[in-house]
């Protein structure tokens, strides 16, 4: 297969940035788009409220855009460390003027601005376990009283799956892929090329991922000073956790 992604010698997300918005909701699986929608539904604000939202590891800032669309008086800070993703994020959020700010920085170490809401979608599985506690401490410090953290990611919850449940996950994933191809969202070649590239980047250490347990994440969030934390949505591995400051 002639995979042009292999021409990119740098980071995984730098290479996939241009195709991310149209291809990621397909290759990630049926829980991706539904999870993003439910994160926005979960935001504990009325549509007319004014508040500040920070999105960690924003990528192309699709989630931040959804927040600004739903809440016309809200403002958002979109934070990511990949310049190629941020170029797209800036163009996407430019129509929102002063309500949106795109910032380059590594979420695990950079200063976070004061906020009423912090969102993270599919970032935590790139954070090593030993860095999670410090990250949640910094999020807790940035949030205003009664502030909220909402995390969407793939994570383990409870007992490991057996073969029967795994088979159902794979069946629904293939249905999702087939429907996307039939609808003209992408081609099978594009999907195959992305997975081939991802396997190579993993082998070269350029796309590092960690498998986190929801119970461990909840414990780290509570230790960071949150008053309440819990899993509020799940579709196979796709999981949403919400936490509130006192």
Description:
This protein is α/β, with parallel strands linked by helices. The protein contains eight helices and seven strands. The protein has a single domain (4-158, 205-244), classed as Rossmann fold, CATH 3.40.50.150. The termini are far apart. The model has no long low-confidence stretch (mean pLDDT 93).
Biggest sheet strand line-up: 3-2-1-4-5-7-6
DSSP strand (E) fraction? 15-25%
- Number-wise, the strands total 7
**What is the CATH architecture annotation?**
3-Layer(aba) Sandwich
One letter per element, helices H and strands E, the order comes to: HHEHEHEEHEHHHEE
Roughly how many Å apart are the termini? 54 Å
**Number of helical elements:** 8
Domains (count): 1
Average pLDDT score: 93
What share of residues is helical? 40-55%
User: Gyration radius, to the nearest Å?
Assistant: 18 Å
Biggest sheet record: 7 strands, mixed
- Which CATH class? Alpha Beta
According to CATH, the fold-level topology is Rossmann fold
Summing up helix and strand content along with how strands pair, one would put the structural category as alpha/beta
Unreliable runs:
none
* CATH homolog superfamily: Vaccinia Virus protein VP39
Q: Estimate the global geometry from the Cα principal axes.
A: globular
